[in-house]
Amino acid sequence: MKKITIAIMIIAIFLAGCSRQSTTEQAEKEYKIGIMLSDAGLGDESFNDSAFQGLEQARDELGVLFDYKEAADGNYEEKITELVKEKYDLIIGLGFSVKDALESVAKQYPEQQFLLIDEQSELENIISLTFKEQEGSFLVGMVAAMASKTGKIGFVGGVDTPLIHHFEMGYIDGAKHYNPEIEIVTEYVGSFDDAEAGSAIAADFIKNDVDFLYHAAGFSGFGMIKKAEEAGVFAAGVDSDQFFIAEKTVVTSMLKNVNTAVFQIAQTLQEEGSISEKSYLFGLSEEGVGLAPIRNITLTAEQQAAIEKAQEEIVSGKITVTSEKENSQ
After folding, report:
1. 151: left (phi > 0), else alpha (psi -120 to 50), else beta?
2. Contact yes or no for 98/109 (Cβ under 8 A)
3. pLDDT at position 148, please?
4. Torsion of CA 176, 180, 185, 191, to 10 degrees
5. What is the pLDDT of residue 13?
6. How confident is the model at residue 20 (pLDDT cuts 50, 70, 90)?
7. What DSSP designation does 73 have?
8. What is the strand order of the sheet 32-36 is part of?
9. All structural domains of the chain with their residue ranges
10. Which segments of the chain are extended strands (E)?
């Protein structure tokens, strides 16, 4: 009996030692993340830069290594394949424009784990991470309706897709929630990297008495903001706080906290060694979207209270924000 007891104790000690060794090895491993940026690339003052900031935070606070790829020629598949061959623990595809290429590569490398941001995939080795952009845009719409003197506000979209409809429809809902009589005009650039086209659309809007502009158009939206600055009308940025693009023009921005989401994914990777969840959805309640500080206008106490109340009611489910256009593809 004593021999059996001693044997059990030896096995238990051995297993405990193995467990400690495994945990230590996981903690000591340097995890590597590769990211395929979307078409506008680094320096867009928006979506790409925000994701990059999240990876920088993961590097500085967690010791996670990372690198990025850009595809000016649109050949995402080639660049994603390069990331696979460079042996990253997780490869991120940023934006819906990357989806087809990411899925193509994922099928060729089923053992590689991928993360697709801003779109959903059914492939087993692709994790999907999306946002409730309509919720944050609802709050921007309320601010726009509060700030407008002409009763006309505008929205500039990049590419006309269901994702960008989230921003547009939320903006419309929020504006009409505060002022049912507000007039909203919308137009799509057809691109996320054409600042001149964004500027031209903004100029047309402004000629027709639009005095507040909001965009979901990447670098095309940069052109919109600069035209608003030139004309002396207000604008709202998107994805990150774009106040510093035009400090007398940008009233607020719809924060799409891609940096927060990317950092959380990196943290999970480091702690668990892989990502077990198949999908993530970030809205107001998860602090995935929100409003940047309001500048250049002063809200009344009643207006500030209205925004806070709307946010609470969205989180509680009392307000359901429209995210899709009727008959949209």
Report:
1. left
2. no
3. 98
4. 10
5. 43
6. very low
7. T
8. 65-69, 32-36, 90-94, 114-117, 126-131, 279-282
9. 28-131+260-282, 133-256+298-316
10. 32-36, 65-69, 90-94, 114-117, 126-131, 152-157, 183-188, 212-216, 234-239, 250-256, 279-282, 289-291
Q: What is the tens place of the pLDDT at every residue in 125-137?
A: 999 999 999 999 9
Reply yes or no on whether the pLDDT at 184 is more than 60.
Answer: yes
Q: Higher pLDDT residue, 137 or 22? A: 137
> What does DSSP say about strands 250-256 and 289-291: parallel, antiparallel, or unpaired?
antiparallel
pLDDT band at 2 (very low <50, low <70, confident <90, very high): very low
Task: Give the predicted TM-score (pTM) of the model.
Answer: 0.82
Nearest CA to 240 out of 25, 43, 2 is that of: 43
Q: Which fold, 28-131+260-282? A: Rossmann fold (3.40.50)
CA 239/CA 281 separation, integer angstroms: 16
Amino acid identity for residue 260 in this structure? T
Q: 104 is written with which tokens?
A: 């193509």
With vertex at residue 208, the alpha carbon angle to CA 204 and CA 214, rounded to the nearest 5 degrees, is 65
Under CATH, what is the fold of the domain 133-256+298-316?
A: Rossmann fold (3.40.50)
What value does the mean pLDDT take over residues 163-181? Answer: 97
Mean pLDDT of 250-277: 94
